[in-house]
Structure formats: C-alpha cells, structure tokens
C-alpha cells in the first residue's frame, strides 16, 4: 500500500518535472526551420530574425514548402508567431513568398494595415511594414494618416519613393550651384 507521503512526494516530483520541461521549451524559442508552412510567414525567430516561406519543386514535380531564417532582423521582437487574427486584420496571407513595398500601393491593403485592428494590435506586422515603407522614403504613420484624407497624395509619395519631381527649370537656373546642407 502506498502512503500519503509517497503520493505527495511523487506529485511534487511530477510537478517539478513538468515545470522543467516548460522552462526548457521557453528557452529554446522559435526556430524558423522547425515551423510548419501554415505559421512560418510573419514569424520571428528567437534570435530576432524574420522567418520566410520558400517554395521548392521536387524532382517528381511536386511543390514543397520550407521555412527558413532570413537575414532580416525585426526591431525589438523575438520569439513571435503571428496570430491568425492579425493575419486577417492586416489583410495578409500566410502563404506569402516574401513581401514587397508594392503592397503599400494597393489602397485596399493599406486600409487594412492602417486599421485600428491591425495598426494598434499587431506590432510585428506594423514593424515589418514600417521598415518597408521607410526603405521607400515613406513614414508609415503619415501614410496611414493619409488613408483618412488625401489617399492619392500618400500613394504618390510611395510611387516616387518620397521624392517629388521638380517642376520645369529654366536654363538660367541650371547654372546655379546646389544649396549646401547646414552644419
């Protein structure tokens, strides 16, 4: 017959073992190569690198998908698998093979990205597209602000990478030296 003390000791040992297993899983974190294709896109590894979904064609002609660690680092985000709610709210697709700033030109996508459900609740997605927009010379908060008002102007800023072509210049003005930046 098993005593009450033995049952208590076994219960404590079982609890300790369960806590050790949980702690071990928490320290290992997200490894892109271990992720399934249905959670890979928009995930961030424990090292802070973004995960990307890659498609390969096998010799048999069948398509195969793998999750890989990219060289792109997320700002202040690690160990992150994006939620299905954020994917939907932000108008994203888990079967994405890379992303492009071109999506910022699509008003339907930008509307979803700038919606409170995405912009205020999905920091990983916002960080990613903030950096994409910045690479094009566009400040994402300003673009989202334009969503409420002059959408065409916001889109024009992206198309021109933030630069607006100057108007016609008379030949005499071409001779002038360029202005120097202040010290």
Automatic annotation (TrEMBL):
The keyword DNA damage does not apply. InterPro entries: PAR1. It holds the Pfam family PAR1. Keywords: Signal. Residues 1-23 form the signal peptide. PANTHER family: PAR1 PROTEIN. This is PAR1 protein. It comes from Rubroshorea leprosula.
């Amino acid at each position: 017959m098993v005593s009450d003390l033995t049952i208590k000791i076994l219960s404590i040992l079982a609890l300790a073992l369960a806590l050790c297993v949980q702690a071990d899983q928490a320290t290992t974190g997200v490894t892109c190569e271990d992720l399934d294709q249905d959670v890979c896109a928009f995930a961030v590894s424990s090292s802070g690198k973004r995960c990307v979904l890659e498609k390969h064609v096998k010799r048999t002609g069948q398509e195969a998908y793998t999750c890989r660690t990219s060289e792109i680092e997320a700002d202040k985000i690690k160990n992150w698998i994006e939620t299905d709610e954020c994917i939907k709210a932000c108008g994203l697709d888990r079967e994405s093979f890379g992303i492009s700033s071109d999506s910022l030109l699509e008003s339907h996508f930008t509307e979803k990205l700038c919606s409170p459900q995405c912009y205020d609740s999905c920091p990983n997605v916002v960080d990613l597209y903030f950096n994409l927009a910045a690479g094009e010379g566009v400040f994402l908060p300003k673009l989202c602000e334009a969503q409420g008002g002059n959408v065409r102007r916001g889109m024009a800023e992206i198309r021109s990478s933030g630069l607006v072509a100057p108007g016609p210049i008379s030949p005499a003005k071409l001779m002038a030296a360029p202005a120097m930046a202040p010290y």
